[in-house]
Structure formats: structure tokens, C-alpha cells
Amino acid sequence: MSKRSKLQNYAEYYALKAASFFLYLFPLGFAVKIGQFIAVFAYYFVPVRKKHIIESLSISFPEKSKKEIYLIAKNTYKNFMKTIVEMAFFTVLSDETIEKMIFYENEDILNNALGRNKGMIFMSAHFGNWELTAMSFSKTHPMSVIVARQSNPLVDKMINDIRTKRGFKAINKDDKMAFRNIIKALKANEAVGILADQDAGKQGVFVSFFGRLASTPKGPALFAIKSGCAVVTAFGVRQPDGRLKIKFTEIPLPNTGDTEEDIKIINTEYSRILEQSIKENPEHWFWFHRKWKTKPPLET
Question: Which of 56, 81, 263, 264 would staple 221 via disulfide (CB 3.0–4.6 Å)?
């Protein structure tokens, strides 16, 4: 790593620490309002991927007016910043306070899935507050989350330390021990969570998502097929009172005799459930992603 890279890493790390310290001077509710103001400012004056977001929304919601599309785009910035502020407060909030921030719509699905003693693949997405969704579950059930390594190692360690402190283990998807750690967790009847909504490149399986084929990671479905564990989706929707309502849905394991076909079936159902959740609350999803970046083999 070059000297310039080290300086940049430290600058980003301490800037993030300073911003967090500033936010801690205020109650969470007021800090969120500050974050929302910053989000609106960014939307108008620092429009990172704004053009991409509006284009993706316009294609995904052709029935919506231009005014509606722009409002969803602005609210996407606001939801993301609210999530970031809430994550920053995870280090100072009590477990009791965090528990009050969420509630489950159908917890029986979780109990039934884990009652089979084969573990559970927990398929979520960058939707609502995805970190809080995983954190709330880890308070009552052993939980590991598959994560991607951040480009800044200092920030990467800081985020993973917060996760570990709050009750769940982080498994880096690029780690040599990742496969073994996932299998170990499932055999111990633990849940393994993954945010499966990002573009998976040419290695993924292409399934329909808002009428277009999108590459989706094969890993979660493959682990479920090989282990026989349950597959459960989880998406948290923000409520008027500020809490997050988390809805669970189990995806039945197919058994066609063709592993690739079974993977496609699971990912198709996951994408359908996610798409429906986004249609109901479009500003909740992280439209910053280049979800349709990788084109199917037959497309030019």
C-alpha cells in the first residue's frame, strides 16, 4: 500500500470518527434530522449516482410520473442517510433501545425454520435498515453475516467490531475459511445472513427483476440445497412511529434433481419477494447499486 493510500485511509477513518462524535452530541431523533438535511443537500448539490437512480426508477416504474420518480429518488437518499446515522449510534445505544426500534410481523416462520435443526440461510437486501434487521435477529438467535471487505481496512475493522459487539459474527466472503465457517454455522443450527441483491457478475444466475434479467448470487441457494437448511427472506419496513417492521417469508427448497435449476428457482422467488417489497416501499431500497450492470450471455 502506498503512502498516499495510507494517508487517505486514515483521513477517511478519522473523518468518520469525528462525524460520529458530532452526532453523539444529539439525541438519535435529532441526529437523524441532521442526516436527512445532509441527504437532501447531497441530492441537489452532490448528486452521487443520481442520474443512475432516476434512470433505474424510470425503467422499473414506467407508470409513475417524472415528479413521482424524482421524489422517490430524493427519499432514497434520505433513507440511506437515516440508516447510516442509526448505524453510527449502534455503539452507544443500549440493547433495550435497539430492541424497541424493531418488531416482527411473523416470527413463527423463524421458529419453524430453526426447529428443524439444520440451520437457516437468511436472505435479505439493502432495504430499510439492513444492519438493524440482522442485529435484531442476532439478539435471540446465533447469527453470522456474510460481508464484503471494505476498501479502507480501518473502516472495515471499525464496522465489523460494531457488528461483533452487537451480537453477530462477520464472515468475509473472500476469506479462505468462509466456506468452512458457513458450513460450521449451519451445522450448529445457526442462521447465516447475506444481502443477496447486488449484481453478482458473470458467476451469478440471471433471473427476472423488474422485468429485466439481473445477475443474482448463487451462494445462498447452493448452501441451502447442499445442507437442506431453510431459506428465509427478511425485509424491514420503516413505520410512521419510527420503528422497523420486519417481515419474514420462507422459500421452499425445490428438488428438481438439477442443482442449477434449483438455484435458479430459489433466486427467482427471492427476487420476486424483494421486488414486491420494493414496489410497496420504493424509497427503502438502495437504488445506488448497479443491479443490472452485468448483461446475460445472449445480450449484446
Answer: 263
Contact 247, 125 (CB under 8 A): no
- Percentage of residues in the chain having pLDDT higher than 70: 97
Backbone angles phi, psi at 85, to 5 degrees: -65, -45
Q: Which helix (H) or strand (E) holds 124?
A: strand 120-124
What is the predicted pLDDT for the residue at 4?
47
Establish if 296 belongs to a structural domain. Answer: no
Q: What was the pLDDT predicted at 2?
A: 46
Per DSSP, which regions of the chain are E strands? 102-104, 120-124, 143-147, 169-172, 191-195, 205-209, 212-216, 230-238, 244-251
Distance in angstroms (rounded) separating the CA atoms of residues 68 and 28? 29
Helical pair 153-165 and 3-23, crossing angle rounded to 10 deg: 40
Structural domains in the chain (count): 1
Supply the DSSP symbol for 201. G
Tell me the average pLDDT across 215-238: 94
Q: Please give the Cα distance from 198 to 210 (Å, whole number).
A: 14
pLDDT of 153 reads: 83
Residue 299 pLDDT level (bands cut at 50, 70, 90): low
Residue 23 to residues 7, 42, 53, 55, Cα–Cα distance (Å): 24, 18, 28, 33
Q: Tell me, yes or no, whether 297 lies in a domain.
A: no
Nearest Cα to Cα of residue 209 among 167, 150, 272, 157 = 272
| Residue 120 and residue 114 in contact, taking contact as beta carbons nearer than 8 Å | yes
Backbone phi, then psi, for 89, in 5-degree steps? -80, -10
pLDDT band at 36 (very low <50, low <70, confident <90, very high): very high
Quote the domain boundaries for residue 145.
Answer: 3-284
* Number of C-beta neighbours around residue 286 at 10 A: 19
293 lies in some domain: no
> Would you say residue 298 lies in a domain?
no
